[in-house]
Amino acid sequence: MMPESPIRKLVPYAEAAKGRGVNVYHLNIGQPDIETPEVALNAIRNFDQKVVAYSHSAGILSYREKLVGYYKKHDIHITADDIIIGAGASEAILFAMNSCMDAGDEIIIPEPFYANYNGFAVNAGVKVVPIPSDIETGFALPPISEFEKVIGPKTKAIMVCNPNNPTGYLYSREELETLKTIALKHDLYLFADEVYREFCYDGKKHISVMHLDGLDDNVILIDSVSKRYSACGVRIGCMISKNKELMATAMKFAQARLSPPTFGQVAAEAAIETPDSYFVEVLEEYLARRNVVVEAINKMKDAFCPNPLGAFYVVAKLPIDDSDKFCQWLLEDFAYNNETVMLAPATGFYATKGRGLDEVRISYVLNTNDLKASMKCLEEALKVYPGKTN
Amino acid sequence: MMPESPIRKLVPYAEAAKGRGVNVYHLNIGQPDIETPEVALNAIRNFDQKVVAYSHSAGILSYREKLVGYYKKHDIHITADDIIIGAGASEAILFAMNSCMDAGDEIIIPEPFYANYNGFAVNAGVKVVPIPSDIETGFALPPISEFEKVIGPKTKAIMVCNPNNPTGYLYSREELETLKTIALKHDLYLFADEVYREFCYDGKKHISVMHLDGLDDNVILIDSVSKRYSACGVRIGCMISKNKELMATAMKFAQARLSPPTFGQVAAEAAIETPDSYFVEVLEEYLARRNVVVEAINKMKDAFCPNPLGAFYVVAKLPIDDSDKFCQWLLEDFAYNNETVMLAPATGFYATKGRGLDEVRISYVLNTNDLKASMKCLEEALKVYPGKTN
């Protein structure tokens, strides 16, 4: 069965709050407010083909060739044949899961993890096996022993998101080497969702699974232009692997749905020419936002959050009984100066029942003034929430 | 396992033929040469949003509302909530299959049928159960007895494509009433892929499954703008159903992949304003093309094809031993005036092994002059093909 997202369940309460004239700050979603690069939008405005035809099932060749150059800049060395473009990372993950796993196979994912992985797994008939990462360690990779505990004959893959949604955690080279050791020892695929590659802070550099030597047959890189260029609606992502047999199978799934979106590919191809200054500005903005949130949370009584080095999310531990109830209460029964915040209950990011009850995910996708007001709301809310535990 | 398409297998032979300087007429694909309406392309050129954001998971509301008007013109009465937009009919079919069938369930489809249905079924873990329609009856709906033979406890749905790809057959009201009788008697879903709705000839009118009374909980309409507006690359289709429970489940699959492509929806929404004169011209053109092909085939010795009333495909019976071999031979060993044709072996459209060996699908997606030259090639080829059976 497809699981219901705890964020979706809150939508009617947010609508009702707005109906009562309450200003709701949306920190619940990964839809940035940053502008899409002009160069991408201009490519669409200058679209001059007479027929909007199917593209190659793996994606427009000139786009894939330009992507080779993009990845080279990130020290990832591939060819256009190693890439299959999908309608977002969503479709790319489906292709990847369908290509290397059969119904009933298992994929290990450190929790908390991006809730939609559950949906893709249901789609592919694959079972997600969670292993725990914890807020106390900043959501670092669980030790090898936790992987070994759950690896069995049905285990086919490990999946990580790096930098991580929902935690913002950035995996170190040592952690990636650990994943390599496990993957090789048990002959597992290693899925890495690296859609937040550009969003690393405090001088940290992103390490890709593609930087690991001797893992070519195991690694599947999942990517998307949605966050990189604040272009979630173009629905362009990709799967990348040097495993030829795997890619041949994935191509059959790609061919079955004919082609990825043409307009989105045109925009994404042009976006590769986005000037570096765009990212400098965007990163400065996100860094300032992260600092606002992290500082504010850690000043709140009995609240805590790690200082994440990537993406644009923070998971915070709050003195609350039940994050689903709390997030609903924020929308239904609370307002401060006629404002409130919509947060994502962390329960939706844990596969293990009972985990995440005192945690929420905060997406810092609003400007710093709105974030400050949001944090003030949260601080006041924690003082009066009936289910507070402090 | 994902099946390999017999058309795909031919691609390297077509490339090789072109490499030898042979002109290859592509009658193997459903990619029309007709221009996309200006109104759709202009909407894209005038795209003025700063952030290409996720749309609603079911599709942009204003687009769905305009679609309600489009369908009303076709005497199909629905609301915006009855529609979920997909990345092409491809994704819409996946949503529909995943929503109303479990792994191992069966869907009955009259063969020959659109080969990609196999891929979607594999994706959804569903088994396609073919029942025979025959070229001798012009590929009319098989009699009720053929359905009854294969209906069992695992049967959950029937699927038809109307007008049909690959046969061009247009189902009559009586045939649709027959489907209704079967669906109600056995409580089955009735999937209807109606993406060729606009392409009906000789004064015939398309009858939709949505025109059937008392079947609201069973009917799932699959649609796409790809063929209607010659805009295959926009990747915009939809599933439509009045079954609220089914749509609630389908929405979970839609939410798991976040949203359909924004640019494509903008183009598709604008395309609804395409003037009627566009379709008058396009239909005149296709009718002329159909007549060229049907007349030419039926003049060839021992060849035969029905006169299809819809879509832009013809299945022709030829005096050949094996359509896969013949189509490969056309590309590999044959040329007439340094030209040849690429056709689709009909074997790929039959699930029953051994059927379609003496049949090919011809897509009349080229102008009449090219079609005449193609038919001349085919005629000459049949005279000298080593595996000819006459």
Entry keywords:
7-stranded mixed beta sheet; 2 domains; 12 helices; Aspartate Aminotransferase, domain 2; 12 strands; alpha/beta; Aspartate Aminotransferase, domain 1; 3-stranded antiparallel beta sheet; homodimer
Description:
The structure is a homodimer of 390-residue chains. Chain A is α/β, with parallel strands linked by helices and 390 residues long. Chain A folds into two domains: 11-35 and 277-384, Aspartate Aminotransferase, domain 1; 39-271, Aspartate Aminotransferase, domain 2 (3-Layer(aba) Sandwich), CATH 3.40.640. Chain A has twelve helices and twelve strands. Chain A has a seven-stranded mixed beta sheet with strand order 2-8-7-6-5-3-4, with helices on both faces. Chain A has a three-stranded antiparallel beta sheet with strand order 9-12-11. In chain A, helix 1 packs parallel to helix 11 (323-332). The model of chain A has no long low-confidence stretch (mean pLDDT 96). Chains A and B meet through helix 2, helix 4, helix 5, helix 8 and helix 9 of A and helix 2, helix 4, helix 5, helix 8 and helix 9 of B.
Summarize the structure.
With 390 residues, the first copy, chain A, is of the alpha/beta class. In chain A, 39% of the residues lie in helices and 15% in strands. In chain A, helix 2 packs across helix 9, helix 4 (88-100) packs across helix 5 and helix 4 packs across helix 8.
- N-to-C SSE series of chain A? HEHHEHEHEHEHEEEHHHEHEEEH
Strand content of chain A: 5-15%
Greatest interface and its participating residue counts:
A-B, 56 and 56 residues
Neighbour order of strands in the largest sheet of chain A = 2-8-7-6-5-3-4
> What is the highest CATH level, the class of the largest domain in chain A?
Alpha Beta
Count of discrete alpha- or pi-helical segments spanning 4 or more residues of chain A: 12
Number of folding domains of chain A?
2
Q: How is the biggest beta sheet of chain A arranged?
A: 7 strands, mixed
Rg of chain A, nearest Å: 21 Å
